[in-house]
Specification:
Blueprint lengths: L23 H22 L6 E6 L2 E7 L2 H4 L6 H13 L7 E7 L3 H9 L4 E6 L24 E4 L3 H24 L3
Parallel strand pairs: 3-4, 4-5
Antiparallel strand pairs: 1-2, 1-3
Length: about 180
Amino acid sequence: MITNNDIKMKPKALGRISTKGLSEEEKLDIKYMKAAIAQAKKAYTLGEVPIGCVIVYDGKIIGRGYNRRNTDKTPLAHAEITAIKRAGKVIKDWRLEDCKLYVTLEPCQMCAGAIVQARIPEVIMAAENPKAGCAGSVMDILNNPDFNHQVSVKKGILGDECAKLLKDFFVELRARNKAQKGNPQ
């Protein structure tokens, strides 16, 4: 059986992103999404699905997180949950009403629910998640009118780069699993 301690993976570098001709808001979205990608790369090196998240308040990153489900042996160790917990501690409140959340993959149902509960007004996401995304792909928890809080969603910021990071991870993981299956120790 493969454990996380057996897997040390290295993400490939992403190409340069041109910001020429972009608005200040678009430049900031790219800046913070790059910070989320840096978090995703931490997960990648642990052999975890490379998902990263940062939360920004007043122009500063106040919460960071990356996927650690296998490492921590809990289904709760998602990037968004970790970042939300850390951001709440920084501002000493569970309400993150003046924050923006940047995430490399569309949130799942648990994370989307936590985002709504934390009153985060805006999510900027990179890649869509057609199998489990709850910001519009499978369902839209973030904009359900039956809840008392809805979230503005911006999609596609560095989406191709994040999708490539995920694809590279799964190609490498399948190759490692296949090699270990044929070469049991």
